[in-house]
Amino acid sequence: MPLRGLPEHRRRHPRGGRLMTRTGIEYLRAKDQDSAVALVAEDPDAAFLAGGTTELDLALKDRVVHPSRFVDIGRLPLRGVTRDGDRLRVAALTTMEELAADPTVRARLPLVREALLLGASTQLRNMATIGGNLLQRTRCRYFRDPDVAACNKREPGSGCAAIEGVARMHAILGAGPSCIALHASDLCVPLVALDAVVELLDADGPRRVPLTDFYLTPGDRPDVETVLRHGELLTHVEIPLLPAGTRSAYIKVRDRTSYEFGLTTAGAAVQVDDGTITMARVGLGGVGTVPWRSWEAERVLVGSPANERTFAAAAQAAIRDPFTVPGTEFKVELAKRTIVRILRTVTS
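== Carbon-monoxide dehydrogenase medium subunit ==
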């Protein structure tokens, strides 16, 4: 029973059927969803393990999180994409590559497919799960370096080293003096724009949360990133399909065209009727502490002509009151240009 990414030398746990890894982390394989939820809920330091592309890095490589127990959900029947009318229901263990290859995603959700393909290398896309992507932690170098003491995400009240450090890859929207860590997911950008909903399960039963309400901006508690409760399992993501005739796309601006995190990204979906924008969805990445839905840009766009003046006004509205530090000021103008570019793309 190999534990992916963990040292292979391990001893059997005295309670039987469980393994204690050489790192001291208990490993259990869940038989079903209810047992997975119970095994995590009973231990305040337990964590779910799926593809492991983020969780294993944080625990074993960076050593900035310290789970006492991994509950492996990798064999649960939470994989696949099904269509229900005008919506897709994506099980959490579906890989990024599987979702990108889905025929309905190809035909009706180009912005989702493009975000998936630009979000990771082929090797990672074949391992990384959709649920894991939505729950990935920030790539902030200060958060991921345990030798940096000042990180409010790791140690509430300790400060934010990024404020006075190198901050090129940090956020300008939803940020503040307590934290400027960036949410790194590409996929989440189009999903918030599309009003996706996550389905969660714990001992009290299932619940549904709009993705726009799922993530929390830092405020005074940067360590609390989502509304997810301990022991609650993300089981599915529901994605509304775009109406026929909608144009959509995803753009990622980065330092190099090979696999790299974005400086600014944008996903947009637009309908145009006789030169007037009748529907608009805009999501931004590379700039927010959470996946950023730009309601302000959408309000400017709907009912306006599809021209450069409208695009510039939407960009101006989207990047309002940014919180910048030395190193992130350039993102204000770059984000505006990225918005104009994506709007040109989907209306041309």
